[in-house]
Model the fold of this input.
Amino acid sequence: MPEGDTVFRAATLLRGALAGKPLTRCDIRVPRYATVDLTGTVVEEVLARGKHLLIRAGAHTIHTHLKMEGVWDVHPPGTRWRRQGYHARIVLAVEDAEAVGFDLGIVEVLDRDREAEAVGHLGPDLLGPDWDPAVAAANLARDPSRPVGLALLDQRVMAGVGNVYRCELCFLRGVHPATPVADAGEPAAWVDLAHRLLMFNRDRVSRITTGDRRPGRGTWVYGRAGKPCRRCGTAIRTGALGSAEDPDRKIDWCPHCQPRTGDGPAAPAP
Done:
């Protein structure tokens, strides 16, 4: 599942292939921007901002978001794509490389001075050079009655945490995801752990939160519904920590290691 570390790696890949080079092809397969052609423009910079990716070329910024299914591939020109062409949303080529964004959830071209419209709402970037844990902790504490499992997904709090890290953070902190922020422990500790987890995984293809690099041993609770907890042996439960914004997002937790406390909403259904 694409989260901040996934986008960080995508930006690193694209930067190495495109930065400092003029585009020899710019094919944007989104109706609104189908006539935009930045061919000849030099790619100045590629950077990640939480789950968002920005490609700066001349006076424009190409803003993309992977959402659930998106991926960026880079390969030598003429190489066969690993997904069928109808999945491609944007193709950017330079003399020695071709980058293809498949199934991207968002593709838009902005004037450089309009970047804030895309990412200005985001909190501190967990993997960014401007990471500020004090601001992130203050953002997390701002709504003390909010379930911590919802607050962690709010990119205005800190940018980069997705559902995998949300589940794993709650387990590692020993907190039920429906627990109000006020009852979930020191915000600075949540922020510090989130930063350490993403930093540890930013260069890894296989995400690890357990410290165990063996296949299938990388997570504590995420994706392990019905399986025994790696700490206590209790069956991992799964359910929806619903909200109007995100009604279908599932969360996994251990009912023994993460007991329900506080006055939050009803526990996620089994």
Summary: The two ends are 22 Å apart (CA to CA). The first strand starts at residue 25 and ends at 28. Strands lie at 25-28, 43-49, 52-57, 60-65, 71-75, 88-94, 97-102, 106-111, 237-240, 250-253.
